[in-house]
Amino acid sequence: MAPKEDMLPPGWEDLDRQMGQLFMMGFDGTSVSPEIRSLIEDYHLGSVLLSAKNLKSAEEATMLVLELQTIARNAGHQVPLLISLDQENGGVNSLYDEIYIRQFPSAMGLAATGSKELAYEVALATAQELKAVGVNWILGPVLDVLTNVRNQPLGVRTAGDDPQEASQYGVQSMKGYQEAGLATCGKHFPSYGNLEFLGSEAEMPIITESLEQLSLSALVPFRNAINQGLDAMMVGGVSMSSAGVNVMHACLSDQVVDELLRKDLKFDGVVVSECLEMEALTHNIGVGGGTVMAKNAGCDVILLCRSFPVQQEAINGLKLGVENGIIGRHRIEQSLRRVLALKARITSWEQALNPPGVLSLTQMQPSHTNLSIRAYNNSITVMRDKNNLLPLSNIITPAEELLLLTPLVKPLAASAVTLSAKEPRHGSVEPVAALDRSASVMSGESVFKELGRSLSRQRNGRVLHTSYTANGVRPIHEDLIKRANAVIIVTADANRNLYQQAFSKHVSLICQSQYSRSGERYDKPVIVVAVSSPYDFVTDLSIGTYICTYDFTETALQTLVKVLCGELTATGSLPGSISRSQKIHQSRQHWLVENWNEDRDAHALDALLDAVRDDCPKGQRSELLGATSNSFLLREENIDEAHFVVRNSSTQALYGFCATYFFRSTGTGVIGCLIVDPSRRKLSIGHSLHSRAIRTLLQQKGMKRFQLGSRLPGIYLGIPTASPVERKRLRQWFANLGWNTALSRPVCSVVLRSLATWSPPDGLTATLQNAHVKYDLAYGTDFAREILDHIKTNARQGVADIYRIALGGAPNCGVIRAKRSSDDLIIGTIVIYNERSMLAGHMPALRASNTPVGGISSPVISPCADDYSTVMQGLILLAIKQIRKLNAQSVVMDCVDGDGNFDCLSSMGFSMLHSFEEVNSDAATWTMMHSS
């Protein structure tokens, strides 16, 4: 007999009734359709998804929900329906009503207020309004972290790029929803914050971060929400491809649902699948098969949005899966218990058949209106106002003309419905012919027309308004720019709609080249307003006045007008790492940082290196073993190096040291080392050194990107990862400075000991002999062009410079080549060197041994190689044979990319010496943070 707690309540023995509770389905139309009626009556559907297409007003929504619940009650349902919808605020709301439903800022807009209490209040108010119309399940909060802020479709639907901040706001929203009596559903697990889009809609976006990377950043809000009592979780329809993970659809994978979500994160609430009607799934698997996979993966509720035949296919597929034994009844019953427990917590027939309705909404309206205004007033953010263009009265009089340029964008549902019914106010704004009148009908221009009217009323002056498209700056724009005395450009997700960036930059340049009637050149004032993602121009300092509203609802744009006209002072602050990094740099630069002086500081640096080595935990090998002050000095013609110290000028002792290199050939600035005396950490010495390093590198002509970790010299290849605790601390430390550590790349050094007794793995020699590849050893510069052309296939910084040193360092350095026998094409290379070579001076791992050692470095295998592993092992085998001829007792191999390569090397007898995470960053990020 089953344990009592695992038994189902009476009346749930029927399989069809059980299965019906495990689906959430939507339908078309604003009234009950025959299809949704059939699903409730004939298929015992337990959850209904409502969208904006179903909901015309709060009053009609209440009637619709009540009718759905009444149908379920009359059909013999033992428990009420779960009625769910999206109501994220900002631009994502399913229920709009100008009279009864208030508009609130998006998740990022709320985070910009800096108030978690306000986020809670807004969530509570939102949920109270939904509860009044009969909704009992909100699909929120959004718990994604924008680990990549650019080109990600979620944008302002998230709280930003900081995991802890996103977690705090997500949990507060969750608590607000629950306080009002709604069930919650976190989304979009495991993360929609850094997706790669590779092809058509039939191809899934991909998560390429490893589970370890996700755990340190993207999963933080999900984990915290689970610990705080999240009711349900929606698992996304994305694929995953990284070390140890290869998943076609996350919501169909037991590795994601049962292993990661259930076991690792210990979530025992209701798991909801992404909508299985997505084209990528129907094209590759089919809905029936997908439903079976989702159920076996661990999903409790399967979502199908609107197609009745597809919904029937899913139900039949699930039933067939049970009948065929593919799905065990225990899976069905376990999910049913979770769904029934959720329903018991948040609804009853008494509640479901007696929604509070419009009367309750009327009572809420005054306080919710005040809350909406307060939230928007605190969210608007002025990122920059270099020339004091705000308020507009600083730069333009009521008699002068203001030009408003807005993009053609898809309207927000609320704005489109609300504003289309409004009559234009005569004389308040001068309309200009739209560029494409046929397109303007669907463009949502009414939202921005009202913005123009509001601006005209508020400043009591004329506003010229026209739109722009991907066609760029047209003659009509040029004429209006000449005519106007100041220009406001509106952008909406310009990072994804790149024409908006180009248009704004072009208009800005035009305005910088204006001439007065007397022939004098002047800059016409330009203000750029991002009404969705704040990242449109966050790092572009050529836009001197930049405002972010986080959405373009009526209330948001009314608040913008108040800021533009000086009635309101903007107090919002961009959430996340960029703002925090600015504050850190402003508040912690109090140590005097001096340029490295070799004569003065070499001895003191050696003493500092000893102190850091001595601080290394027992049993752990310090990355600085073998390093001396001379190890950091490259003295290479094509590499500019600048090193910095914080020191005691009285005792000459060094408290901190930072090494930087600028590789001119690629425009890359590298921080190759940043160390602080262990006894003087947490005193901002590291912050001061880092700030000086970035500022100096920014002065280099042609700077394109930054890198944390250097292949040359190969001391710290990135953030050390030997100790999990120290790795986590360092990752967070650098993340706080603005580095996107979630996008780091693994790199390591390995060692092969006991070389005298070593023998290659069984069969390796035979495999190499049978391959259509030949190997040779090249010395000297005669082979440089051919080899350097080959290694262009590897863009890692410093690799080319290692090869140049090796080719010029005969007889102590050389390059082993793998060539295709058929055409002599180089398909692989590796550097080989000994202890007397110049390279050895820059690779401390080679110098740390007391016995003779040989070095191997920087394998580069061409993408056209037929068998990557075979070519790699062939190069290494020949290198080992050459090194053994020199009576070396071990081999150190440095600058090895990725986890995949280590598997290949461990099979040959190599063990890990040091592991690192190399981090890259766009130069634009640092340009903004270090501008004066």
UniProtKB/TrEMBL annotation:
Record's keyword annotation contains Ribosomal protein: no
Domain Glycoside hydrolase family 3 N-terminal: 15-341
Record GO terms (molecular function): hydrolase activity, hydrolyzing O-glycosyl compounds
A single BP term in Gene Ontology: carbohydrate metabolic process
Keywords, in A-Z order: Carbohydrate metabolism, Glycoprotein, Glycosidase, Hydrolase
PANTHER family registered for this protein in UniProt: BETA-HEXOSAMINIDASE-RELATED (PTHR30480), PUTATIVE (AFU_ORTHOLOGUE AFUA_8G04060)-RELATED (PTHR30480:SF8)
Family named by the database record: Belongs to the glycosyl hydrolase 3 family.
UniProt protein name: Glycoside hydrolase family 3 N-terminal domain-containing protein
Organism of provenance: Penicillium chermesinum
